[in-house]
Amino acid sequence: MSDITSGLDSSSATDSTSLACLKQAGIGFIGRYYSRTTQIAGKKLTQSEAQLICQAGLRIVAVYEDGPTSYSYFSADRGVEDAQTAIAQAEAIGQPQGTAIYFTVDYNATQSDVEGNITAYFEAINQTIGGLYAAGVYGSGLTCMTILGAQLATYAWLSQSTGWTGYTNFSTWNIKQGPEHSVCGLNSDLDDGHGEFGGFTVTV
Fold first, then answer.
1. 4, 22, 33, 104 from 65: Cα distances, Å
2. Domain housing 190
3. Among 63, 50, 40, which Cα is nearest to 14's?
4. C-alpha angle with apex 159: 90 to 178, nearest 5 degrees?
5. pTM score, two decimals?
6. Is 166 within a domain?
7. Which residue, 14, 44, 137, 172, could crosslink 147 as a Cys pair with Cβ 3.0–4.6 Å?
8. For residues 14 and 151, what is the distance between their CA atoms, to the nearest angstrom?
9. Taking CA 176 as the corner, what is the angle to CA 136 and CA 15, rounded to the nearest 5 degrees?
10. Residue 10 class from Cβ within 10 Å (0-12 exposed, 13-18 middle, 19+ buried)?
11. How many domains does the chain fold into?
12. What is the pLDDT of residue 204?
């Protein structure tokens, strides 16, 4: 596949030293998080870090994640709450309107799971975002295919979990997650971005 941009995603906050190292290593974007409930120090992207990332010449990919690791997490009400929080945090860091916020389904969801509460969750996200930002989906091949097919996401990020349903059958990803790897002192997953994948820069 041509037009690939190397990147990574990390729950660790970056600084000017690690960002300079990433740039030298050929990394073009970094996935960083919005969250309402995380207790992980440094996971949530701040305005000052967003500006540092862009000053270093990298793009940001925004990912919203609290704890979407089982079917019970998902509902229409949760979709509204997550989208409202994502919008507020995106505006706080200066994320340009129209760029992507990925929402995660971080488990091997079944077809009935995706067609049930997960679809209701993404329907609520789309209604709440209302065109301010583009919704993206992170998850298994099955999850990505189903949510894209329902036109509830513009972008898809394929999880690194090769054993999850639909992994080998899903090829129209915008970002494909690779193995966990320490890069420039960051605990991270390597990623490939294909073409336009929803990355952005903020005004410094």
1. 25, 23, 7, 6
2. 4-194
3. 50
4. 100
5. 0.97
6. yes
7. 137
8. 34
9. 80
10. buried
11. 1
12. 79
CATH number at residue 10: 3.20.20.80
Answer yes or no: is 101 within a domain. yes
Q: How many other C-beta atoms can be found within 10 angstroms of the C-beta atom of residue 83?
A: 25
d(CA 45, CA 60): 10
- Paired tokens of 123: 């329907």
> Which residue matches tokens 């329902």?
150
* 3-class DSSP state of 186: strand
User: Is the residue at 203 inside a domain?
Assistant: no
Buried/exposed 17-31: b ≥16 CB within 10 Å, e otherwise: ebbebbeeeebbbbb
The verdict on residue 99 lying in a domain is yes
- Alpha-carbon distance of 189 to 52, in angstroms, equals 20
Residue 2: per-residue pLDDT: 64
